[in-house]
Amino acid sequence: MTVAQLLFGVFPYVAIILAVVGTIWRYRSDKFSYSSLSSQFLETKQLFWGSVPWHYGILTVLTGHLVAFLVPRSILGWNGVPIRLYILEGMALIAGILALVGLVLLILRRLNSPRLWHITSVMDSILLLALLVQVVAGVWTAIFYRWGSSWFAAFATPYLWSILLFKPDISLVSNMPWVVQTHIVGGFVLLALLPFTRLVHLLSFPYAYLWRPPQVVIWYRRSRLGGSR
Amino acid sequence: MTGTTVVSTLMVRKWIAVFCLTAIILAVFVVGVGAAPPRQQGGEAIFQQKCAACHTIGGGTLVGPDLSGVTNLRDVDWLTRWLSAPDKMLADGDPIAIELLKEFNNIPMPNLGLTDAEVADLIAYMQAQDGGAVTVEPAAAQPEVISQPPGDPDAGSQLFIGERALANGGPACISCHSVDTVRGLGGGTLGPNLTHVYGRFGDAGLSASLKGLPFPTMQGVFSKKPLTDDEVADLHAFFSQADRTTQKPISSTGFFILGILGTLVFLGLSQLIWIKRLNGVRKPLVGR
């Protein structure tokens, strides 16, 4: 068995199994850790400049990957006109750089503050490192191996489906540049890490808030204290 | 209560370990089956599928040499090494390989990822074609005249940039390739710039390459979604026109600067949107 078969044919299954089994195990054995430990109270100013660009950037990019995976034709159709391709790629690159800037700031924030370092677990560090490698490889791919949105739909989508259908076709990815291959393997590494790190907050996020009826919060004491409203 | 928890945690762990092990073994098995060569092919079938885009046997030169008589010209050991890993032989500076590279417009033969069995089958096929002792007159054959309709360069351009989708569902060329006549932010850079591909490959070579697209990365997709004859003709016409352009290639710098500028705009906007965030709550409370 070659290295390529191991990385692109076997490891994805290991990662998926770890993700599924690990998620169930953590929820059953350690239910109350099923989120991210907040550090907002310890430091909030740098957190804003790290967390906001990181989350907006990475969620945009992740959504893009997901759409290209589920409905590749929509991306290929949209990219049929060069100006539309450039707009999509431009937005994706901006989101990618935002994620990178945010992530680097979040890492520096933890490194620079002894209070934060004290509550940073080993798995937090591993996760931050894995995310850094992944985002750098992604932004690098976007800039130097363009236009990823189009070739993702042609190469990565059938590859990912071949994994899910238990007929891994590694010929689609085994000749890609090593940065792209790093990004592919990195994606599965993150999947495997998901249940064992703070990444689980992806699953415990209260998504229902996005469509629940609005709740009006009234700060009745504010005007009396001379607030702005 | 605690005892029950410990027991159940231990059981869960044991169960997970067993499950993971089984799953990993299953995964290895699935890949072993899935990644194995689909079936043994005869040398002729392999030749048609992987070699015929660039080579003929007795039909003249295409991208690479006419292979008639090649088994008399080179020994089996050299052929085996060449077919298995041409990229490695070129990198190691094999004198015959280097000479061939020069002779054929510096277009290197790609590593086709053939298995040892496929290489042996191919050599057996070529030996059979050469018929053992038959003397072959090299360079006697003229390049095969490929009859094809004259292509339309404008249609080729539309196919290249994706305005017209490829009939069999392949991705547009611009996804990975650039041609200097495409302006804006240019074409893709995953694959090579194809502006002067016509000059390098020549008429017959370009047509043959477009038909088979025998490049290792492309094979993954285009072996299942080949170009139609009309598409080959149109793209051929487009490339022959692009070969004459004097436009300069577009670098990635503009795209990168666009990304940086957009990032700065977003950061500025987020400061504006969340200007009322509770920045000043903690400081008065805890003094830092």
Question: Which helices and strands, and how do they pair?
Answer:
The complex is a heterodimer of chains A (229) and B (288).
Chain A: H1 3-29, H2 45-70, H3 72-78, H4 82-112, H5 114-118, H6 122-144, H7 148-164, H8 178-193, H9 201-204
Chain B: H1 2-35, H2 43-51, H3 70-73, H4 76-84, H5 86-91, H6 95-103, H7 116-130, H8 153-161, H9 197-212, H10 216-222, H11 229-242, H12 253-273, H13 282-286
Distance between the termini of chain A: 69 Å
Q: How many strands appear in the DSSP assignment of chain A? A: 0
The CATH class of the domain at 40-131 in chain B: Mainly Alpha
Radius of gyration of chain B, Cα only, in angstroms? 28 Å
Strand fraction of chain A equals under 5%
- What CATH calls the topology of the domain at 40-131 in chain B is Cytochrome Bc1 Complex, Chain D, domain 2
- What is the arithmetic mean of pLDDT of chain A? 91
C-alpha end-to-end distance of chain B:
44 Å
The secondary-structure element order of chain A is: HHHHHHHHH
- DSSP summary: helix tally of chain B: 13
Taken from the alpha-carbon principal axes, the silhouette of chain B is extended
Find the CATH superfamily of the domain at 40-131 in chain B: Cytochrome c-like domain
Strand content of chain B: under 5%
Low-confidence stretches of chain B: 36-40, 133-143
Describe it for me?
The complex is a heterodimer of chains A (229) and B (288). By secondary structure, chain A is mainly α. Chain B is an all-alpha fold. Among the domains of chain B are: 92 residues, Cytochrome Bc1 Complex, Chain D, domain 2, CATH 1.10.760.10; 90 residues, Cytochrome Bc1 Complex, Chain D, domain 2. Chain B contains 13 helices and no strands. The longest helix of chain B has 34 residues. About 6% of the residues of chain B have low confidence. The chains are: A mainly alpha (229), B mainly alpha (288). At the A-B interface, α1, α2, α4, α6 and α7 of A face α1, α10 and α12 of B.
